[in-house]
Amino acid sequence: MEYRKLPHGEEKISVIGMGSSVIGEQPEKDIIETVQLALDSGINFFDMAGGHASVFSAYGKALEGRRQNAMLQVHFGADYITGAYGWTTNLDTVKKSVEWQLEKLKTDYIDFGFIHCIDEEADLIAYEKNSILNYLMDMKEQDVVKHIGLSTHAPVIANKVLDMNILDMLMFSINPMYDYGEGDYAIGSDGERQRLYRRCEKESVGISVMKPFNAGQLLDAKQSPFHAAMTTAQCIQYALDKPGVMTVLGGPGNVKQLKEILSYFDTTKEERNYSIISRLTPDESIGKCVYCKHCHPCPANIDIGLINKYYDLAVQGDILAKEHYMTLEKTAADCIRCGHCNRRCPFKVMQMERMNEIKNYFGK
Ligand code: SF4
Ligand code: SF4
Asked: What's the gap in Å between 263 CA and the centre of ligand 1?
C-alpha cells in the first residue's frame, strides 16, 4: 500500500480506500471478510455512505480491536434509521442517524464528518438554515469529529463550501468520463473541474475520489464512451494523477472485487497508462497536459508530468508548488528540444514549446 499525508493533519491515508455503496447487498459475514481483507492489505480509509444500513453493524464487528487502523467518513445527512438509505436535511433526523451510526460502528468518534451529498445551492442553504452545519461544527468542537468534509458532484457547490474555509476533505466524483463531459455526474466543464482540483491542492484540502469506474461503465467496452474497456488500474491512476487527490474509493461488492482493485499495485507503468481517453478530449482541453506521463521517458530526464502539474498549480497561486519546482534536480531549463514529447503526446500538447514557457515563468 502507498499512503499520502492529509495536508490538514498528520494522518497518512491509503491511496486506495474502500467505499460502501454496494457491499451492503452481501450477507454480514461477507462484508466483515471484505473489510478485514481491506485492513490486512493496508487500506485505512473507508467511506460509510452506502445504499444499505446493514454495513454499519458489519463494520462495527470487522473493526473490533482495529478501530485505530481505520479512518471513517461518516455522512451528516444520510439517514439509515429506517433500515434503508435516505437523504435528509432535517436536523433531528440527522442527529438520530449519526447517533445510530456511531452505536452500530461501536465507536465514539468520527474521523471525517461529512456534509452529505449536496449538489444544489438550495440544499446547501437548507443545510445551513436547519443548523445541520452548526451541529457538525459543534461535534468537531467537542472532538467527536476530527475533520470536516463535503461530498458533492458539483464544482460550484464545492467552491462555495471551500469559500467557508472549513474543509479538510472533499469527496468528489472523478473519472475521465465526467471530466470529459460524459455521464450523469459530468457536472461542470473539464476546465472548471481541473481548476477545482488545483484549488483543493492549493488550499490543502484533500480529495477522496468517488465513482472512479463510474459503476463499472468504464470497465466495459460496450458501455465506455471511449469505445474500449479501461482497466481498474488505469482508472485509479487517472484519479491519483489529479492534484489534491489523497485516495481513490473503489466500491467492491465482495472479496474478489476488492482483490481486483488491489491488483493495481501489481501493474506496470505501461499497464496504468490511460492515454486511450485522448480519443474524446473535449475541444477546450486539447493541448492541455493531463500529467499522464505517456510522453516519458524524456532524454533529458525531466519529469514532464510532474513539472506541468507544479506549473499549473503555481499559476493558480499555489506557493508550495512553486517551492517544489524550485527544488527539482531537472527543470524545464534542461530541455534539449528534441521534440520527443510533442510526437508522443496523445493530447496534442506542444510540450517542447511549453517547456520554454515553464522555464520563463519559474526563471529556471
Ligand atoms: S505532455 Fe502529454 S503525454 Fe506528456 S504528461 Fe502531458 S498530457 Fe501526458
Ligand atoms: S523536448 Fe524537452 S521535455 Fe520534451 S522530451 Fe525532449 S528534452 Fe524532454
From this structure: 25
The pick from 351, 352, 357 for probing ligand 1's pocket by mutation, whose C-beta has the most ligand atoms within 8 angstroms, reads: 351
Looking at the structure, tell me whether residues 270 and 323 fall in a common domain: no
Q: Which of 117, 98, 18, 99 is nearest to 59 (CA)?
A: 18
The reply to whether 279 falls in a domain is no
Q: Provide the number of structural domains found in the chain.
A: 2
Q: Tell whether ligand 2 has an atom less than 6 A from the beta carbon of residue 104.
A: no
Residues 6+ apart with CB under 8 A from 259: 37
- Atom number, ligand 2, closest to the C-alpha of residue 351: 4
**Closest listed ligand to the CA of 278:** 1
| Nearest ligand, measured from the Cα of 352 | 2
Last residue of one domain, picked from the residues 240, 274, 308:
274
Specify the DSSP element, H or E, that contains 359: helix 351-362
Find the domain containing 69 and state its range: 3-274
351 alpha carbon to ligand 2 midpoint, in Å?
7
Is 355 close to ligand 1, i.e. is its CB under 6 Å away? no
Statement to judge: residues 185 and 236 lie in one domain:
yes
Task: State the pLDDT at residue 211.
Answer: 94
Q: Is the CB of 43 under 6 A from ligand 1?
A: no
Q: Among candidates 327, 316, 290, 334, which has minimal Cα distance to 175?
A: 290
Q: In angstroms, rounded to a whole number, what is the distance separating the alpha carbons of residues 260 and 224? A: 19
Residue 341 Cβ < 6 Å to ligand 1: yes
Query: Could you give phi then psi for residue 12, rounded to 5 degrees?
Result: -105, 120
Task: Point out the residues of the chain with pLDDT beneath 50.
Answer: none
Of the candidates 228, 159, 153, 206, the residue with the CA atom closest to the CA atom of residue 183: 153
**ω before 297 within 30° of 0 (cis)?**
yes
Asked if residue 302 has its Cβ within 6 Å of ligand 2, the reply is yes
Residue 226, pLDDT score: 81
Q: Which atom of ligand 2 is nearest to the CA of 336?
A: 7
- pLDDT of amino acid 154: 96
pLDDT of residue 225: 84
Whether residue 142 is found in the same domain as residue 217:
yes
Please give the number of the atom of ligand 2 that sits closest to the Cα of 295: 5
Examine the domain organization and report whether 211 and 305 are in the same domain. Answer: no
Q: Are 131 and 168 in contact (CB under 8 A)?
A: no
